[in-house]
TrEMBL record:
InterPro entries: AhpC/TSA, Peroxiredoxin, Peroxiredoxin_AhpC-typ, Thioredoxin-like_sf, Thioredoxin_domain. It catalyses: a hydroperoxide + NADH + H(+) = an alcohol + NAD(+) + H2O. Residues 2-164 form the Thioredoxin domain. SUPFAM superfamilies: Thioredoxin-like. PANTHER family: ALKYL HYDROPEROXIDE REDUCTASE C, THIOREDOXIN PEROXIDASE. The keyword Oxidoreductase applies. This is Alkyl hydroperoxide reductase C. It comes from Mucilaginibacter galii.
């Protein structure tokens, strides 16, 4: 599995960015991750569309979209389902219609494989979350098994800590003292 300190793999994938007819899809590439504007990226993966735990996570990331934007970061959601399945799911699920971030389609499973997050039996992505700095380097990885949803507040807490570029003690929260050495 790709880990902290490694460059995020190159990719070029279709993503669902809207449910408006004719504006549903865009290409997203790894070039999108690297920028001079000091914008971080949080990419989170779920196993399958049209399931039960996955929409709770996607909806929670969407609910906290403003928190991520306030931290100069962008969200990308991803799974190994196609862009057409993503679009159908968004149109048919009340909590997903108004997503503010793209749903990346890794239909070939090549990116999930490069990341090392494919479950070996079903060949679907684990619940993986990557925080990527503006140079395209992974700064945090968290992977949950298929049946356990992640904690979006923890992703925000870790992003806050990474962005301080200081030593943050256990259970540190934004606004608290960091460790001075």
């Amino acid at each position: 599995m790709i880990t902290v300190g490694e460059k995020f793999p190159s990719f070029n994938k279709k993503a669902v960015v809207s449910i408006e007819k004719g504006k549903e899809f865009e290409d997203i590439t790894s070039d999108f991750l690297v920028n001079d504007d000091n914008v971080w990226t949080v990419m989170f993966w779920w196993p399958k569309d049209f399931t039960f735990v996955c929409p709770t996570e996607i909806a929670e990331f969407n609910k906290n979209y403003g928190e991520f934007r306030d931290r100069d970061s962008r969200l990308i959601g991803a799974s190994t389902d196609s862009e057409f399945v993503h679009a159908a799911w968004r149109k048919n699920h009340d909590d997903l219609r108004d997503l503010k971030f793209p749903m990346l389609a890794d239909t070939s499973k090549s990116l999930a494989e490069d990341l090392g997050i494919l479950e070996p039996t079903e060949k679907i992505a684990y619940r993986a979350t990557f925080i990527i700095d503006p140079t395209g380097v992974v700064r945090w990885v968290c992977v949950n098994d298929l049946n356990v949803g992640r904690n979006v507040k923890e992703v925000l807490r870790v992003l806050d800590g990474l962005q301080t570029d200081e030593l943050c003690p256990c259970n540190w929260e934004k606004g608290e003292e960091t460790i001075n050495v």
